[in-house]
Amino acid sequence: MKRKLLCALLCVSTVAATMMTGCGNSSESTKEETKEDVSDTSSETEKTDATKETQDVKETEMTQEELIEAAKAEGTLRVYGVHSYLEKAAAAFQEKYGITVEWTQLGETELMDKVSTECQAGISDGADLIFAQDGARISADLITPGYIHQWSSDRLGALTGNSDMSLSVFEYSAKAFIYNNEKTGETPYLTNIWMVTDPQYKGFFSMKDPTAEGVNFNFLTMLTSDENAAKMAEAYKEYYGKDITLTTDNAGYEFIKMMYENGVVLGTSDTKISEAIGAKGQSDTWVGFFAVQRFATAAEKDLALAMNTEMSPFVGWYYPIYSIILENAQNKNAAKLFVEYMLSEEGWSFWSENVGDYNANTSLPYAGDISFEDWKKIAIGEDLDYVYKNRAVVEDFISSIQ
């Protein structure tokens, strides 16, 4: 396949992120007191930090039997999510409990825009529960305005290690640098992240356009943190044999700049990218950054895909997919029961064979040879507070170099 064909398969799309404020809760619900002084006069910027302490609204926890009865007494549970597997889980949940579930699959940007609009307008028949993955927009569009219902569960806390369910993690998903191994065979081909900036491989690297998927923007943002940028600088010296000369703030920004200058091919779908990268019979060895779960269908689609788990300084990254009950939800108990169901072996069964997906309930099975603990050693993870504070800067930077 020639480069023209790959580019044709991977057309570029753009989105506009919209921030909504001021609805769903009373204005008092977004205010908080500090532990030291209730008359604290710290700035609004400090008060809207993505990791700010929430109000103490701990409810009396129901037993599972009580929760089931309360959930059945409510109406139709409305769920929005970004993954098709959720529809299968919703159908199984409905059959199990007799609770009608209205399921809507949306792209991440569309989902966040829709939920923000519904919360701002106080729509009563909007989503009760959402499954979303763009941490930066969740922080800006849902946490800061006070649209997230705060609740806790000691029962789920025992499974996940965190009883605060206000912004609970359902699963962690992984993306990695993956290449076509038809010509490389068993020899690891991609050994260093800076390879995709090397002029001799110009135009042979593809990833989903960050403006079409926020988690890719979050990944690029994480590269600019002091810790990760230091690792990137070390990897640069390892690959190019010399210290990095900076024209930007740090090695993370420098990588982003060099990646774009080296002709990164931006696509609109991880699935399409994996199929284009892994197609057999190509004269060149292509590299892509996409969801590890694409390995699940590689054999079925006869794709030649491989990942080097010893790549420097890391093989990819992982990020949370959150289950979020909205403050203006009309069916909160049904939503809580669904969250509980998704952390059970039955609920997880629709994902359990996906390589690169890990349930927040670590006792549940995972596919592949790499445990989540091992994955965290070879990949970088999302820092919600960092992406919340810095993504806009990275977005502006990328706009300035395109």
TrEMBL record:
Residues 1-17 form the signal peptide. Residues 29-58 have a biased composition (Basic and acidic residues). Keywords: Signal. One of its GO terms (cellular component) is outer membrane-bounded periplasmic space. It comes from Lachnotalea glycerini. Pfam families: SBP_bac_8. The keyword Signal applies. The keyword Signal applies. This is ABC transporter substrate-binding protein. Residues 22-58 are annotated as: Disordered.
